[in-house]
Write a structure and sequence with these properties.
132 residues; alpha+beta; two-stranded antiparallel sheet; 33% helix
């Protein structure tokens, strides 16, 4: 995945009860999920099945080991964080998980609501902010 573009981070995230209950390591997992999620539909290669799979906007095809490495935390932190996010007692869970052979397809619910609906614009081509 290219290290380009950006994600939107809402200030009201601090008021979310699940966020308040998380450790800083768990919050890092949440941010990593947002960074690693696809911003548009793409084909992802599952090295376990050796097949291409469609990974939609707001989804990740990743193992817990990879997510652990990306977030810089242990696998136990990843497991507990994913469980918290899937069991969110609010209007809807933050994410859903669908096991595939070797990896998990994670879907961030309401991704477009928080990241905007403009899926045709490439965030990497947005102009740089000015110093005004």
């Amino acid at each position: 995945m290219a290290n380009r573009g950006y994600i939107k981070l809402w200030r009201k995230l601090r008021d979310w009860p699940v966020w308040k209950a998380m450790s800083w390591d768990q919050r890092g997992v949440v941010l990593t999920l947002m960074w690693d999620a696809r911003w548009r539909d793409e084909q992802g290669f599952n090295t376990q099945t050796r097949q291409f799979e469609t990974v939609g906007r707001g989804q990740l095809l990743i193992s817990q080991r990879e997510l652990s490495a990306n977030a810089g935390v242990g696998r136990r932190v990843v497991r507990t964080t994913l469980a918290m996010l899937e069991a969110d007692p609010g209007d809807t869970a933050f994410l859903t998980q669908e096991p595939t052979q070797g990896k998990t397809l994670i879907t961030i619910e309401n991704y477009s609501k928080y990241q905007g609906d403009d899926i045709d614009a490439d965030p990497a081509t947005e102009p740089e902010p000015t110093q005004q």
